[in-house]
Amino acid sequence: MILNKERVKILLVAIVFIAASKAFSQTKPNIIVILTDDQGWADVGFNGATDIPTDNLDRLASQGVIFSNGYVSHPYCSPSRAGLLTGRYQARFGHDCNMPYKVENDETVGTPLSEKLIPEALKEQGYRTSAIGKWHLGDHPDLYPPAQGFDHWFGFPGGGMNYWGNSTDDIHTVYRDRKIVPESELSYLTDDFTNEAIKFISKKDDKPFFMYLAYNAPHAPDHATRAYLEKTKHIEYAGRSVYAAMVNAVDTNVGKIDSTLVANGIKDNTIVVFLSDNGGRMQHADNRPNRGHKGMLFEGGIKVPFFINWPNKINGGQTYSKPISSLDLFPTLLNAAQGDISKEPQLDGVDLMPFIHNTNKGNPHDVLFWRSSGNFEYAVRKGKFKLYKSAYKDKTLLFDLEKDHLERNDIASEHPEIIADLEKTYKAWDAKNMAPGWYDPHAENVKKEEKLWENTRKKSLKNK
Fold first, then answer.
1. Residues 4, 9, 13, 14, Cα dihedral to 10°
2. pTM of the model
3. Per-residue pLDDT for 353 more than 60?
4. pLDDT score, position 327
5. Going by DSSP bridges, is the β-strand pair 65-67/318-320 parallel, antiparallel, or unpaired?
6. Where do the domains of the chain lie, and which CATH numbers do they carry?
7. Which of 164, 326, 364, 457 could cross-link 84 (Cys pair, CB 3.0–4.6 Å)?
8. Is residue 64 pLDDT above 60, yes or no?
9. Local confidence band at 18 (pLDDT 50, 70, 90 cut-offs)
10. Distance (Å, whole) CA 303 – CA 83
11. Rounded distance, CA 368 to CA 245, Å?
């Protein structure tokens, strides 16, 4: 009888412990990182867009904190994503370039499995994980999301795809986990990705979730449905009108996701991060007032629309103006999930929450670095000064971003001592990096673009 009572006591203690564990786990926030592709700084209302309707994004931004100096770690797609998901400068592991064409059978081309990604860290904290949309971190099946910490995957592995789901080869095919999704089940990818996201969010599960929702919009090709085109018919420039419809499609679908969070009673304890993978593309996007575009290390290529929304922990109506980076998402989200970033010493980012809450009044970063295609181009921002070794202009430029945030006045010749200091700082950082593991056509494309720029200006003089 005594034995039975002891068993009952043990059972009761176990029940209480399990209940307490569940309650503890439920305090952990759900996390959604929404990444757009090639979206310009001024292609959202919260950064000044007046032509593209982005009411849902603007509302979510106003309910959280907007980063007016939010950077990504690279000026184009694949390397930027590698930096975001690892929390490390992608140069640390030689991921400076997009995937070269037709190397899908090479498992060494892409973010290596030895790198720890956000989903892997969050799984250690009891999270279920999902990757939806564009991957672009490795075309080989061994490097697909299921091998990199994601329980669930719905998307395509390559860098670009048409919006109707028409397959062209293995890396331009939509998968659910590792099975090909029939084209008959696809309609318009922005909508399809959202529908899959809503299913994952609505699944009944005791575990909190992490979702990496990487829309391929508004990356080319320029495809939009009649419904979205109707919302941007007021834009008379046709190319911009179609691009705007693609952005509006993202906004409409983000609104659906927000409504799903509300309907499931989990909005207040869900972190929603929104940013673009790099500056807006050369055609149709709007990076104003910043100089440059995707591919460049001018502000227009690396500064992106960026906000975090978390009703339980972040007061709305905030704008944070000190420089932050997409590298900061890993430590910020891990700490929010009650993890321990001190156990991740390899991270290059910082936890942003103390800065958002103003308990840390310092700078999140004293120095930020960028490296493209090895050292074909590079930049370093230290305090108010930014050095840019530009292959486009074939010279090293220096800007005082406090006095000249538009980067119009190169002051390199006036401050050789600052150039020397920033070069020394950059070289010390780069000494810890790896050489690129592969190359893409970026260098050739830069030379072609700059030549076209020069020829166009010369023609204008001849015709004057």
1. 0
2. 0.91
3. yes
4. 98
5. parallel
6. 30-356 (3.40.720.10), 374-462 (3.30.1120.10)
7. 326
8. yes
9. very low
10. 15
11. 34
- Which has the closest alpha carbon to 306: 345, 352, 337, 267? 352
Q: Which residue has the higher pLDDT, 418 or 452?
A: 418
Residue 392: partners with Cβ closer than 8 Å, 6 or more residues away: 296, 377, 446, 449, 450
158 Cβ contact partners less than 8 Å away, ≥ 6 residues apart: 99, 134, 135, 136, 139, 171, 172
Phi, psi at 143, each rounded to 5°:
-110, 5
Burial status of residue 375 (CB atoms within 10 A of its CB: 0-12, 13-18, 19 or more) = middle
Where do we find the tokens 């906004």? 251
Work out the number of other CB atoms within 10 angstroms of the CB of residue 360.
14
CA angle 335, 339, 342 (to 5 degrees): 80
pLDDT of residue 9: 57
The residue to which tokens 């293995």 are assigned = 170
pLDDT of residue 5: 57
Q: Is 103 left (phi over 0), alpha (psi -120 to 50) or beta?
A: alpha
Q: Hey, what are 410's tokens? A: 């190169």
**Nearest Cα to 210, choosing from 147, 277, 273?**
273
Residue partners of 247: CB distance under 8 A and separation at least 6: 36, 39, 43, 44, 52, 54, 217, 218
pLDDT tens digits, one per residue of 267-300: 999 999 999 999 999 999 999 999 999 999 999 9
Q: What is the pLDDT of residues 307-335, one digit of tens each?
A: 999 999 999 999 999 999 999 999 999 99
Higher pLDDT, 68 or 456: 68
Q: Which residues are catalytic?
A: 77, 136
